[in-house]
Every structure is written in C-alpha cells, then in structure tokens.
C-alpha cells in the first residue's frame, strides 16, 4: 500500500496508523497508533507540546472511540518523547537503557533557553523551528531489556530492543497481525541518519533483524512509509559508512576530511549531509575508545562543517 507522504494520520493497515511529519529532517519525526476495540497503543510522541497536541487532536477526531492506554517511546531523542506529558493516563513503556537516558536528559531546558543564533547551521535552524516551552518530562513507568510482548485489546504488539545503535536503547515496535513495523530512528528515509552512540555494527545487525521479520509496511522515525528495499539500501549506507570511517581512521585522516570524502554514489539524494560529521565522528569515537570526539562538540561545529554538496555527487540511476 503506497502511503502519501503528507503531514497527519494515515491508516497503513487495518486499525493501524502512521502519523507523518514531512520533510523528516531535524526534529520532524513520525509516530504510530495501533488500535483494537476501544484500546490503543501510541508509538512515540513528538518534539514539542504543541506538535504532540495537534497529533492527539487529529487522532481523537479520526478515532473518538479509542483511548490510548499505552505509550511506547522507541528511544531517548526528544523528538520521540517530549510530548509524553499530554498522555497522563497512559502507561509509558521503554527499554531500561532508553529510560535511563531520558531521566538524565535536560536538553529541552537548554533548547528553550537558547536565543536564535547561539548555535549555527542546521542545528540553529532546528531550534528555531520548534517551541520547546512548557515541556515537563514524563518518564517510562515500565521498562524492559531485550523484548516485551504487549496486548492492545485482542491484538499483540512486540517490542524488540536492538540498541545500542542509533542511541543506547533503541526499540522496534512490531505489529505481526498487520505485518507492520515502526522502527523509530533505526531507519531514516530521505536523509542521512544520525549516529548518536553507535556502534554502527549493532545498527547493521538491527537492519538484518528487520529484513528477517515478516513485515511489509515499515514506518521509519523520519521520512515516508516504505518497505524492505529501503531497509536494504539503508544497510548499504551503514556498511559503507563503517568501512570508510575505519579505513580513514587507520590512515590517520583528520575527521573533517574523512567526513567530506565518503563516496556518496547511490546516496546523492539524501538530505542533511552535514550529519556525516556526526556519523564518521561516532565511528572515530568508537575506535579512539577515550570518548573523543564528543558528540556535543561535533553538534556545535555542524554549521561550520562544509558538508559535501550531494547534488554534485554522481548517482547511479535505478539503484
Ligand atoms: Zn528522531
């Protein structure tokens, strides 16, 4: 089923919905809804209180018959949980590793206090696009490690922990009876991913796990609804990133040069190429083993990092 990439709620299978936020770049995340009878499970809230309120209003308009009793946060990035407070009656579920990061996270306060121009480039643009006022963090009441089976009415939903990969505790939300998978940020479509923690090898393993699941409809954390071919392509990107970063590190190539010289053949259409600095940097951090280069330092340098102009990269049609 081809799902149009338009902002709002889309039924992607029987009683199963995706809430999409084009264009999927910094902070523009997707969410999901699984319904059975009057019972519903929400996959992720959004980056801000107003955005999450708009989503919940639309859900209430389309499905006034249901109550969201369970909220799953796929991982600890703010664009997947900073609206949690609007669901005070739902049981919030996350992996233990994700919950630990959420409890220690105060980034929303920093972002709300920033004045325009304090950061540069894409990150500054992101901060100015969202209203971070009024966020009162609501944390998971139920945590797990590995996997967890949840009931939504008479349907089953399976949570599968695949992190550390994108973040320390990433979880996939599998809805077997609909052959649907909500990946959180284990899948980015249309843009370069962001590697926060890695390891990238764990992320590649997560792609293999997805490719082995009996699923047809895949909702990424960012970008349009896709199928397995996009997961295969994304896996190729991660393999190339890891290979390029490891070889560059071995050869003593400075990080910025390494980030600028990855071969983007086949990936020239991806947006947010400035993220290459974070992604190659994350592999360098893995290999250095001493915490450097630290992510915050890289984030504050994103604006000055001259990302490769992907429009100039040669692409192979039909890939
Ligand atoms: Zn995200």
UniProtKB/TrEMBL annotation:
The lineage of its organism: Bacteria, Bacillati, Actinomycetota, Actinomycetes, Streptosporangiales. SMART domains: Lactamase_B. This is MBL fold metallo-hydrolase. Residues 28-222 form the Metallo-beta-lactamase domain. It comes from Actinomadura gamaensis. Signal peptide: none annotated. InterPro entries: Metallo-B-lactamas (IPR001279), NDM-1-like (IPR050855), RibonucZ/Hydroxyglut_hydro (IPR036866).
